Amino acid sequence: MHKSGFVNILGKPNAGKSTLMNALLGEKMVIVSPKPQTTRHRILGILNSDEYQIVFSDTPGVIDKPSYKMHEAMSSFIHQTFEDADVFIYLVTPEEKPDDHKETLAKIADVHAPKFLVLNKSDLIDQAAITLRLDAYRQTNIFQKYLAISAKEQTGIDELMTAIKEALPEGPEYFPKDQMTDRPERFFVTEIIREKILEQYHQEVPYSCEVGIDEYKEGEGRDRDVTTIRATIYVNRKTQKPILIGRQGVSIKQLGIAARQSIEKFIGTRVHLELFVKIRENWRDDERALKEFGYRNY
Ligand code: GDP
Ligand code: MG
Fold it and tell me: 169 alpha carbon to ligand 2 midpoint, in Å?
């Protein structure tokens, strides 16, 4: 018997969804940051074996008040995850209470798939507090399982994985068995550059940036160990361009080095990376820009 299906991970911004997805996949695929709203797209990560194919989906966090058209697009990615789940994981953290999730819990109650309530960051509290929290969620009567994990410390992941495999329906393979994601390599390159922007710049700056690939060329012949990548960072406002570039280009240079090292690790060749900065005013509210940047896939 072959089992397969979509395992959708949902939760508030910063709950640790991307960290959990990486832990379940056994390698770092999606970007993680202490800053909220890091993940902007729905990204599939596929785990394959002879007996099963599990398609995990990482999503943006549930945003209470969308402020841009970009947020509306992000919310629509979330909506899909209610509909196509074969197993549904709702991720919460110790500082949140069931009451903080009222609206989302009401929606989850209507999801037909098996549903797990997973308390993440349990490394931050003691066993008594964990039990108390899980009991509070048990009162909702919505979920089939109530589990505590630490995605970061990788505790409880095996138990969660076992529960997922049990709940997974019988089904065919949806993707070729050697495929690990629905996204091309160059998408992850833009994500890595965004991750480095999140690490290096502060306040509003990372949120106003989007990254596009202008050229992605794998080396040939003697240069086959070098990939050439030219990417543009689009900023929302004129004033942000000099911030990104920095005095005498110091900041953009530092960003380029950090991004290049990470990209090299990810794609496994040396990388020649060139970064450009352009202004694209108010792209987060610009339908055409959103389409170009892949926020409208319908
Ligand atoms: P997302 O917004 O839900 O995708 O959250 P991320 O996966 O980007 O993680 C947000 C922050 O929480 C990052 O700084 C992570 O390192 C941290 N984090 C994730 N899981 C855990 C955990 O189990 N324990 C602790 N202490 N921190 C965690
Ligand atoms: Mg995330």
Answer: 26
Q: Burial-class residue 197 by CB neighbours within 10 Å (0-12, 13-18, 19+).
A: buried
163 Cα–ligand 1 center, Å: 22
Q: Which ligand is nearest to the CA of 90?
A: 1
* 143-178 pLDDT tens trace: 999 999 999 999 999 999 999 999 999 999 999 999
Atom of ligand 1 nearest to the CA of 15: 3
Whole-prediction pTM: 0.91
Measured from CB, residues less than 6 Å from any atom of ligand 1 are: 11, 13-19, 32-34, 38-39, 61, 120-121, 123-124, 150-152
Question: What pLDDT score was predicted for residue 296?
Answer: 81
Ranges of beta strands (E only) in 12-126 are 43-48, 52-58, 87-92, 115-119
Half-sphere exposure of 211 (CA within 13 A, CB side): 27
Q: Note the pLDDT tens digit of each residue in 261-281.
A: 999 999 999 999 999 999 999
Least confident span in 64-68, 197-201, 281-285: 64-68
Atom of ligand 1 nearest to the CA of 13: 2
Alpha-carbon distance of 298 to 295, in angstroms, equals 9
Give every CB contact of residue 91 below 8 A, 6+ residues apart in sequence: 9, 10, 11, 15, 16, 17, 20, 118, 120
Note whether 255 and 196 are within 8 A (CB): yes
Q: Which residues, chain by chain, have CB under 5 Å from ion ligand 2?
A: 17-18, 38-39
Ligand 1 centre and the CA of 34: distance in Å? 7
**Helix 157-167 and helix 17-25, axial crossing angle in degrees, nearest 10:** 80
Q: Quick one: pLDDT at residue 99?
A: 92
End-to-end CA distance of the chain: 34
User: What is the per-residue pLDDT across 181-203, written as a single tens digit (0 to 9) for each?
Assistant: 999 999 999 999 999 999 999 99
